[in-house]
Amino acid sequence: MALKDYVDGDDFDGVLLVQSLDRRRKADGGEFLRVTVGDRTGSVAAMVWDEVEEALAVLTAGEPVHVRGRYEEHARYGKQIGRARFAAPREGSFERGDLEVAPPRGAEQLERELRELVATVRDVHLAALLERLLGPDTETWLRFREAPAAKHYHQAYRHGLLEHSLGVAQAVGTVATTFPGIDRDVAVAGALLHDIGKTHAYAMQSGAIDFTEDGRMLGEIALGHHLVRSTIASIDGFPDELSRGVCHIVLSHHGSLEHGSPVVPCTREATLVHMMDNLGGRLGSFDRLERQLSPGSSWSSYDNGIGASAHFGSRAAADGDPPAELAAA
């Protein structure tokens, strides 16, 4: 039974992946645990109020654990497993693939599409930059291929960065042919590299995602800019204006100062990448919410990633709900 199929009041007894561990202090000075566990359909908080040390003995971030407790949908705290108890899972009692979220298209397919897109970049300097950072035998590519795109909201899973960056770059490449004045090569290269700092900002062990020390202290934009700028410096004759154009995309792709960009987009190419990046992240949140949707439901709960509840009308129709006009009759 998938996690998304449980409803308030159900007894839970199954294997889930430990996504994070948060050790907290009670008002009386004692400790409790907030453990985030999940499968490929969603995640839930599992609360441990007593016997914290015993629970920690069998809990490892990124590893499966057998969970027992009561599935609850709290009005204030959301979905959780109350009074959770943990044990080591029995061998053969679970399939790892059922616990880890993965892109709808496999990593091999995503890589093929990326190589095809990179081949359309005609500028020799940008092609050299992409080869040094995303060439199949580079260390950066190995990190890029495995990294998540986020910790929570969109493509927060292995190969998520590849999926997100490719989707943004494909959209940028298409839209660049519609509006005049856009340098497609700069826009596509910038789109592929806009989040490359996440290769050093996130650490991923099995299914658990966390920030690295550099990610916490420097941030993915600064890390990405340093990586791109230092690689450009190693390419003989790389034009200064071209360097500024690509680096500006990396620095400005969050779109505003309050969202973490040190500069706002001031070129057509940077504006296009920011818009497609924002769109890709928002639609990725819809994918996450749809995976977690209970059978027969057409609305998600409120989600911070999109600032609203998400509606999936086609999902309800697929589950057998009558058309709205018939339901109202």
In words, what does this structure look like?
There is one protein chain. The protein has 329 residues and is of the alpha+beta class. The chain folds into two domains: 3-98, Beta Barrel (OB fold (Dihydrolipoamide Acetyltransferase, E2P)), CATH 2.40.50; 101-286, Hypothetical protein af1432 (Orthogonal Bundle). Helices cover 42% and strands 21% of the residues. The chain contains 14 helices and nine strands. Strand 6 and strand 7 form a beta hairpin. The radius of gyration is 22 Å and the shape is elongated.
Strand content: 15-25%
Instruction: Give the number of DSSP strands.
Output: 9
C-alpha-based Rg, rounded: 22 Å
Fold-level CATH name of the largest domain: Hypothetical protein af1432
Helical amount among residues, as a percent range?
40-55%
Largest sheet data:
5 strands, mixed, barrel
Q: How are strands sequenced across the largest beta sheet?
A: 1-2-3-5-4
How is the topology of this model organized?
Blueprint: E1 11-25, E2 31-39, E3 42-48, H1 52-56, E4 64-74, E5 78-87, H2 96-99, H3 107-118, H4 124-134, H5 139-146, H6 160-175, H7 184-193, H8 198-201, E6 202-205, E7 208-211, H9 213-217, H10 220-233, H11 240-252, H12 268-292, E8 299-303, E9 308-311, H13 313-318, H14 324-327
Parallel strand pairs: 3-5
Antiparallel strand pairs: 1-2, 1-4, 2-3, 4-5, 6-7, 8-9
Helix pairs in contact: 3-6, 6-7, 6-12, 7-11, 7-12, 10-11, 11-12
